[in-house]
From TrEMBL:
Keywords: 2Fe-2S, Electron transport, Iron, Iron-sulfur, Metal-binding, Transport. This is Bacterioferritin-associated ferredoxin. Its cofactor is [2Fe-2S] cluster. The keyword Repeat does not apply. Belongs to the Bfd family. Residues 3-51 form the BFD-like [2Fe-2S]-binding domain. The keyword Iron-sulfur applies. It comes from Bowmanella pacifica. It comes from the Bacteria. Pfam families: Fer2_BFD.
């Protein structure tokens, strides 16, 4: 699903950046993809994707 239409960035790209490239907040994400740097409508959803990915990662680590 597209999160940032201005830059064509999907939730999968954001989740991968969080998991593999150390993105942990909107500032990192903006630097990496430009998310939120134009109209700004994607900021809330992008933040949710970051948070959910971090929660999923920590749950995964607890189980393993
Ligand atoms: S939709 Fe992301 S900056 Fe416009």
């Amino acid at each position: 699903m597209f999160v940032c239409l201005c830059h064509g960035i999907t939730d999968k790209q954001i989740a991968r950046a969080v998991r593999e490239e150390g993105v942990g907040n909107m500032r990192d994400l903006r630097k990496q993809f430009g998310v939120g740097s134009q109209c700004g409508k994607c900021v809330q959803l992008a933040q949710q994707v970051i948070d959910n990915t971090i929660v999923d990662e920590s749950l995964f680590k607890e189980v393993c």
